């Protein structure tokens, strides 16, 4: 069975709404043969990442950058996973008011270094997520998970 690892930092109600929408999409009953594993960014380990076949990353954008928690996750897993996870798909959702472009660039730079492949357009939300934006989050989770189906 394929494994989709959702690495998230969810400190606010808006991030929580986005996280739940991503999970709902990733666990849609039509997606078969994919186990969805969730890990808070501060608790993710290199073995978690090595055992996964794809990833969804979620973070607030703080002061033009990803959260310290997501940065810590990347710092923890980068070198142990560098050669072993190349080519794996990933998706990203961000919530922020200012500086989301910097956060997107940071994730793109780090994932390029890891050799991960963007599987879906990033979902970036400012303020309270709208119904359409939550649907984008659902689609993000479903798209990455569906790419892992055997």
TrEMBL record:
Identify this protein by name: NAD(P)H-dependent oxidoreductase
Query: Pfam families given for it?
Result: FMN_red
Q: Which residues form the NADPH-dependent FMN reductase-like domain?
A: 46-125
Residue ranges that the Swiss-Prot or TrEMBL entry lists as coiled coil = none
According to the UniProt entry, its GO molecular function terms are: oxidoreductase activity
The record lists the lineage as: Bacteria, Bacillati, Actinomycetota, Actinomycetes, Mycobacteriales
The record, for SUPFAM superfamilies, names: Flavoproteins
């Amino acid at each position: 069975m394929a494994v989709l690892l959702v690495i998230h930092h969810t400190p606010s109600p808006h991030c929580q709404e986005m996280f739940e929408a991503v999970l709902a999409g990733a666990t849609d009953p039509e997606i078969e043969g994919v186990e969805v594993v969730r890990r808070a960014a501060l608790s993710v380990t290199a073995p978690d990442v090595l055992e996964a076949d794809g990833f969804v990353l979620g973070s607030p954008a703080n002061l033009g950058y990803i959260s310290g928690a997501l940065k810590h996750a990347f710092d923890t897993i980068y070198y142990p996973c560098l050669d072993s996870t190349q080519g794996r798909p990933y998706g990203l959702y961000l919530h922020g008011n200012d500086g989301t472009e910097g956060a997107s660039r940071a994730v793109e730079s780090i994932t390029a270094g890891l050799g991960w492949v963007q599987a879906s357009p990033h979902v970036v939300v400012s303020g309270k997520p709208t119904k359409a934006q939550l649907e984008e989050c659902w689609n993000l989770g479903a798209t990455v998970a569906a790419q892992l189906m055997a």
